Each structure stands twice: as structure tokens, then as C-alpha cells.
């Protein structure tokens, strides 16, 4: 038996559940590379938030999910709006990701000052210039669990934007994919 498997075997047994605290889970999950998105809602609920908890759910019907903390401004904005967009960011959009992750930024329409965007045809949610891709969604389900809600949206429209490398988040830092050596 190698030392790694011995450590796994001794760390927990099926009959004795172990609770992992938020700090440990964050540390472990930081090893999972994710893409970076900006979720937006439009019209009278105009707001945006950087998120990496985003995934496709189903191809038929076309649907995606995003997870939003209960205390985030986006939680109420998305709930009230009932429609949203997800902008998939490119590597050169790190400043945009940092801007919409800043909890001290000005909220409302002012958070978009100086940024190029247009309202999505189906949602009115901002579609950000320079994004690699985007989806517009109608909120079709919300599942509250722990300190977050998983919002599921049926995709109303999807599009590709600029070409380029994806913005990634790994180990608490932004980055881009390494070139393939194949």
C-alpha cells in the first residue's frame, strides 16, 4: 500500500462521517480549475457579479446553472428579475472579473460606467464586449442549500464573442491555459 492510500484510508471511515469546515473545503476546491464568468441581470434590477460556480446542466432542454450566496446582492436581483445572462470571460478580461468581484464597487447602473456592453434581446441583461461567449436564460428553478442557491436557467439564446484564451481561476489566482505540448 502506498502512503497516499494509507492516509486516505485512515482519514475517515464509512461509519464515521467527517465534517469539513469552510476553510478546508475552500482550500481543497482551489485545486479545481474553473472558468470565470460574469452573471448579469438587466432592466430595473441592473447588476453584475463575477462567478466561477457555473456549469451546463442539460442539452435538452438547454440549461445552465450558477450558484449564488444568499447574502450576495445578485441573489435578490436574480430572484426578482427572473432572467439573467452569463458572460464567459477571456484571459484579457481579468480586470473586468476583478471589478465585478469587488464588493466595494458602486452598485446599480454606475457599476457599468466606462464598460462596453449591450442589453440581451431576451433578458435585457448586460452582454459584455470582449467576452468569449454568453448565454441568456430564463430562471426555471432555484434550489436553496446551505448558504447558497443553485439557480437553473433555460437557455433562450447563446452566442460566441471574441476568440482567445479563456480566463481561468485556480489556487486563488487568475490565469490562462498553458499551450499544449502535443
UniProtKB/TrEMBL annotation:
It holds the Pfam family Flavin_Reduct. Transmembrane segments: none annotated. SUPFAM superfamilies: FMN-binding split barrel (SSF50475). One of its GO terms (molecular function) is FMN binding. Gene3D superfamilies: Electron Transport, Fmn-binding Protein, Chain A. Keywords: Oxidoreductase. GO terms for biological process: pyrimidine nucleobase catabolic process. InterPro entries: Flavin_Rdtase-like_dom (IPR002563), NADH-dep_flavin_reductase (IPR050268), Split_barrel_FMN-bd (IPR012349). SMART domains: Flavin_Reduct. Residues 1-20 are annotated as: Disordered. Residues 1-17 have a biased composition (Low complexity). Residues 29-176 form the Flavin reductase like domain. This is Oxidoreductase. It comes from Streptomyces ruber.
Amino acid at each position: 500500500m502506498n502512503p497516499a492510500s494509507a492516509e486516505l484510508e485512515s482519514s475517515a471511515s464509512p461509519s464515521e462521517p467527517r465534517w469539513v469546515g469552510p476553510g478546508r473545503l475552500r482550500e481543497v476546491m482551489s485545486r479545481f480549475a474553473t472558468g470565470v464568468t460574469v452573471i448579469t441581470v438587466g432592466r430595473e434590477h441592473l447588476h453584475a457579479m463575477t462567478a466561477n460556480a457555473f456549469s451546463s446542466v442539460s442539452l435538452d432542454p438547454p440549461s445552465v446553472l450558477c450558484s449564488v450566496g444568499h447574502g450576495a446582492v445578485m441573489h435578490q436581483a436574480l430572484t426578482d428579475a427572473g432572467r439573467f445572462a452569463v458572460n464567459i470571460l477571456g484571459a484579457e478580461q481579468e480586470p473586468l472579473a476583478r471589478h465585478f468581484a469587488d464588493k466595494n464597487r458602486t452598485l446599480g447602473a454606475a457599476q457599468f460606467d466606462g464598460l462596453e456592453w449591450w442589453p440581451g434581446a431576451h433578458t435585457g441583461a448586460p452582454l459584455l464586449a470582449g467576452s468569449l461567449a454568453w448565454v441568456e436564460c430564463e430562471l426555471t428553478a432555484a434550489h436553496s442549500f446551505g448558504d447558497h442557491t443553485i439557480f437553473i436557467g433555460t437557455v433562450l439564446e447563446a452566442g460566441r464573442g471574441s476568440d482567445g484564451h479563456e480566463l481561468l481561476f485556480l489556487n486563488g489566482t487568475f490565469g490562462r491555459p498553458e499551450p499544449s505540448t502535443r
